[in-house]
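S.,

Sequence below, as promised.
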Amino acid sequence: MSDTTQENTSDTQRLARDLRLLVDDTEALLRHAVRDAGEGYAEARVRLEQSLRTARERLTDLEEDVSRRLRAAGQATDAYVHEHPWQAVGVGAGLGLLVGLLISRR
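The prediction came back faster than expected:
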C-alpha cells in the first residue's frame, strides 16, 4: 500500500472515530437534557435524534468501507508478493536503503 493510501486510510479512520465520539457525546447530552423545556424542544429533540441515527448509520457504512478497502489492499499486496517475490525483495531493500539514508542525514 502506498504512503498516500495509508495516510488517506488513517485520516478516514480518524475522522470516523471523531464523528463517532461526537455522536456519542450528543446522545449523552440528549439523555441528560431537561425534559420539560416545551413542545419546541421536543420537536427539535426528535429531529436531532433522527439526524444522529442517520449519522451513526453513515459512520458504520464508512467503517465497513474502510475495512473492506484495507482487506482488499492487503490481499492484493499478498498476491503481488507471492507472484513476484524477487521484485518485492528488491523494493523492500530499496526502501530500507532510502530510510537508512534519510535517518543518517539527521
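The chain has a mean pLDDT of 79.

Coffee later?
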